[in-house]
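Write out the bound-state structure for D-MYO-inositol-1-phosphate.
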Amino acid sequence: MLNFAVQIAREAGGLLMQHLGAAKITNKGDIDLVTEADVASENLIIERIRSYYPQHGILAEESGEAVLVGGKRSDWKWIIDPLDGTTNYAHGYPCFCVSIALEHEGVLEIGVVYDPVRDEMFAAERGKGATLNSRTIRVSEVDELNKAMVCTGFPYNVRERPNFAVDFTNFTMAAQAVRRDGSAAIDLAYVACGRFDGFWEDGLNPWDTAAGVLLIQEARGRVTNFDDQPLDIYTAKVLCSNGLIHDAMRAVLRQGPYGRL
Ligand code: IPD
Ligand code: CA
Ligand code: CA
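---
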């Protein structure tokens, strides 16, 4: 099934590249976009899953959760973000990807993040490690926040959350560098392969995180919510790291305005 996920992620990524610069864009919300490419990529992935695994459930960003024929529930659920980094994509900023994960009885079994711009395929299977273009990847060994490059993202309702910048400011003061790349799935994959040492965001959805979470776990990193509990991908607050700077990142998230605890 990992090969199947890799294959459809590659196919969907190719489709995104074909539409790049030419996709029609519509607004879902004030600043929340959807492009023709999101929809085309999602349709392609769903069609492939339907024909190979017709009994499996699907949770996809643009079409929501599919109810199976006959109202039956499946133990298997594909969790799909057909284009993560839509705003980047719409502006021609080359940081976007396809994210596909497979859950069995609530446990993540497979995760694939494909960046078609760099032709980078991140893939993981529970218990079998994580790879980038077939080479094993591991999280970084940076063990101090002030030597770490961390990353974050801003959810679409950021304008209704004036406090979002507090954590950003506090991390800017505490870490060596902070990035905001606009594709949570790529950010998580980059933690898995050691390019980033940590990542946090409040406002994510399961399709943003499912594949990346398994990549980090299989690359021996750590993924929790902001309260240090194991992450439930159906909740919004995500903190992940190489494990070594996790507590320091949590401490920053607890600081609040003006660096006060
Ligand atoms: C978004 C990106 C972004 C993150 C947002 C997500 P989309 O997903 O992952 O980096 O900050 O919270 O919604 O809309 O580009 O698929
Ligand atoms: Ca997304
Ligand atoms: Ca998306």
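---
The helical segments are 2-19, 36-52, 86-91, 164-174, 184-192, 206-218, 246-253.
Residues 2-19 form the longest helix (18 residues).
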